[in-house]
């Protein structure tokens, strides 16, 4: 329906569209099924909140390439693009832009993650994440159910693999 038609029907006219900002992020999962969160530094928007590592996609850049670049720059780790598996996405209207954030799951990387820009990092368990122990941006909250499911699946798979290895070696798990 055209705007005039909406107004005639007594509905609110659509507000000014916000610019769409494309950000890519990752749920990096360790063998215990914990996820890596990074704390946004002081002086930035959403300072102090804990986020999934990632950043903005540059013009002309593929999302996976952007994430590989961001993880190298921010955490000092090398991630093969093929190890990035689509998991979920965020779509959230902030005051001055609309965030669209495809989020991948990843269990393979080379190097030890360390905050290259001085940001604090934390490996967070599913229980801690679910309890809200790490305050996150509002855009991230709808992504938590699929992230938690991925964390628990990873932990269960690693536990089963350890039990199978122990059984094969003739040892109790
Ligand atoms: N990487 C990441 N960004 C998030 C998450 N949740 C969320 O709302 N964001 C927002 C915060 C920023 O507005 C944007 C990320 O872009 P960025 O990392 O380049 O943001 P920034 O503020 O450091 O950069 P800038 O605008 O100062 O250049 O997405 C998240 O879980 N991970």
What does this structure look like?
This protein is an alpha+beta fold and 173 residues long. It has one domain (18-166): Nucleoside Triphosphate Pyrophosphohydrolase (Alpha-Beta Complex), CATH 3.90.79. The protein has 4 helices and 7 strands. The chain has helices spanning 3-8, 63-75, 126-131, 144-168; strands spanning 20-28, 35-39, 50-51, 54-56, 85-93, 98-106, 121-124. The strands form 2 sheets. It has a 4-stranded mixed sheet, sandwiched between helices. A 3-stranded antiparallel sheet has the order 3-2-7. The longest helix has 25 residues, at 144-168. It is globular, with a radius of gyration of 20 Å. It starts with a helix and ends in a 5-residue tail after the last helix. The chain binds 8-OXO-2'-deoxyguanosine-5'-triphosphate. The site of 8-OXO-2'-deoxyguanosine-5'-triphosphate has 14 residues, from strand 1 and strand 4.
β-strand amount:
15-25%
Total separate domains: 1
Please give the largest β-sheet: 4 strands, mixed
Order of helices and strands: HEEEEHEEEHH
Instruction: Please give the CATH class.
Output: Alpha Beta
Q: Strand order across the biggest sheet? A: 4-1-6-5
- CATH homologous superfamily, by name? Nucleoside Triphosphate Pyrophosphohydrolase
Going by CATH, the architecture would be Alpha-Beta Complex
Radius of gyration: 20 Å
Structural class, judged by helices and strands? alpha+beta
Task: Kindly identify the CATH topology.
Answer: Nucleoside Triphosphate Pyrophosphohydrolase
Oligomeric form: single chain
């Amino acid at each position: 329906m055209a705007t005039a038609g909406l107004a005639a029907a007594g509905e609110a006219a659509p507000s000014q569209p916000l610019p769409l900002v494309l950000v890519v992020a990752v749920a990096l999962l360790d063998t215990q099924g914990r996820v890596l969160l990074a704390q946004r530094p002081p002086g930035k928007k959403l300072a102090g909140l804990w986020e999934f590592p990632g950043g903005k996609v540059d013009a002309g850049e593929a999302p996976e390439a952007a994430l590989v670049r961001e993880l190298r720059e921010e955490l000092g780790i090398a991630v093969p693009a093929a190890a990035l598996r689509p998991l979920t996405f965020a779509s959230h209207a902030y005051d001055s832009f609309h965030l669209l954030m495809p989020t991948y799951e990843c269990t393979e990387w080379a190097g030890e993650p360390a905050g290259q820009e001085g940001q604090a990092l934390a490996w967070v368990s599913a229980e801690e994440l679910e309890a809200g122990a790490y305050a996150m941006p509002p855009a991230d909250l709808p992504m938590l159910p699929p992230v938690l499911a991925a964390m628990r699946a990873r932990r269960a798979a690693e536990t089963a693999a350890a039990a199978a290895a122990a059984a094969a070696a003739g040892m109790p798990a």
